[in-house]
């Protein structure tokens, strides 16, 4: 899986870092933008392991970091995702991974449904 294809630690290898928090609460059907910092222009793969979709309507998406080194992906807690979802981000040019813990608050009404 591409999200696990990351660079090993080394003196010239920067670690991937979360921008903002890694714990998020959303309602069913709601979206959240996940952000990481890597080298500018680097590819970053975000993968949802417990359901949900990204902006490409798949459970994984690869994006290119901006000129400032920020990579973003929009995750939606689609129908059937309950309790929590784990999303992992990794880049082949950075060491490590970022794990996002997304709690789906089923006690609220969904704003819409993507799936």
SSE topology:
Blueprint: E1 17-18, E2 23-26, E3 31-37, E4 43-48, E5 53-54, E6 60-64, E7 70-76, E8 83-90, E9 97-104
Parallel strand pairs: 2-9
Antiparallel strand pairs: 1-3, 3-7, 4-6, 4-8, 5-7, 8-9
Concise structural overview:
The protein is mostly beta strands and 115 residues long. Helices cover 0% and strands 43% of the residues.
| Structural class by helix and strand composition | mainly beta
SSE order, as H and E?
EEEEEEEEE
What is the CA-atom radius of gyration, in angstroms? 14 Å
SS elements, strand count:
9
Total helix count?
0
Residue ranges: pLDDT <50 for 5 or more in a row?
none
Structure keywords:
5-stranded mixed sheet; single chain; elongated; 115 residues
Give a description of the structure.
The protein starts with 16 loop residues before the first strand and ends in an 11-residue tail after the last strand. It has 115 residues and is mainly beta. It has no helices and nine strands. It has a five-stranded mixed beta sheet with strand order 2-9-8-4-6, with no helix packed on it. A four-stranded antiparallel beta sheet has the order 1-3-7-5, with no helix packed on it.
């Amino acid at each position: 899986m591409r999200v696990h294809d990351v660079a090993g630690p080394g003196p010239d290898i920067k670690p991937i870092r979360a921008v903002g928090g890694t714990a998020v609460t959303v309602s069913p059907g709601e979206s959240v933008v996940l952000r990481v910092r890597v080298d500018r222009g680097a590819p970053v793969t975000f993968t949802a392991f417990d359901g949900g979709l990204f902006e490409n309507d798949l459970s994984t998406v690869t994006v290119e970091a901006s000129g400032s080194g920020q990579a973003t992906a929009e995750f939606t807690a689609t129908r059937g995702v309950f309790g929590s979802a784990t999303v992992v981000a990794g880049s082949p040019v950075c060491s490590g991974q970022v794990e996002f813990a997304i709690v789906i608050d089923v006690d609220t009404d969904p704003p819409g449904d993507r799936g």
